[in-house]
Here is the input.
Amino acid sequence: MRKSEAKAPISYEEYKRLELIPDSAPTQPRRWFWQWLQAVLVYFDGRSGLRVWQASQNGQIVWRVYDPITHRRAEFADELDLRVWLEERYYQPASV
Here is the structure.
């Protein structure tokens, strides 16, 4: 082959076929890795406070809470219920 006759590059699909790359990688190990990484980052980040956010469930707004220390989750239909739960939680004696 002469220098002026360059071969056309192959497509990515052809490359995958030649290198025996699967069409889709397994997702379970990837999901486990990201969960592990998130746990490590939370541990080293030092954020131990409650996490509160709004979500939509069946077209309704709900409030969700997660406590990374106790791993407890809660869900409330309205903000007032959330506030009551937070106040009660704040004034509860620490469990031993």
Q: What stands out?
A: Strands lie at 51-57, 60-67, 72-76. The helical segments are 12-19, 28-45, 79-91. The chain has a mean pLDDT of 77. Residues 12-91 form one domain.
